[in-house]
Amino acid sequence: MAEILVLDDVLDAGVLIKKILERKGHNVYVFDEEEEALKYAKEHQIELAILDIKLKKLTGIEVLEELKEVKGDIKAIMLTGYPTVETARQAIKAGASEYCVKPIDKEELEEKVAKVLTS
Known about the structure:
alpha/beta; Rossmann fold; 5-stranded parallel beta sheet; 5 helices
């Protein structure tokens, strides 16, 4: 299955996503610090990044832009608890394939991950 990086400023949210996606056979690596996630992504093969838009130091969109610089083919799903048209527009412009609203719906997440990985 896929190598997936999850970055969320709330570690428990990332752990929940990890549990959901590991049941589908994916390898999931969870981070709550932007620098650690970026370092890991640069040193390892990651197919999909699941990024919260609101983080501690950067935005998820800024992290995605940095990831795209070093791994142009990385796919991304953005997460937010505060959905707006503007954040959705920014996420898509930065290269995100999908957008999920928190709280995470298990079936929606599984469907979007499968869709993004096969596109």
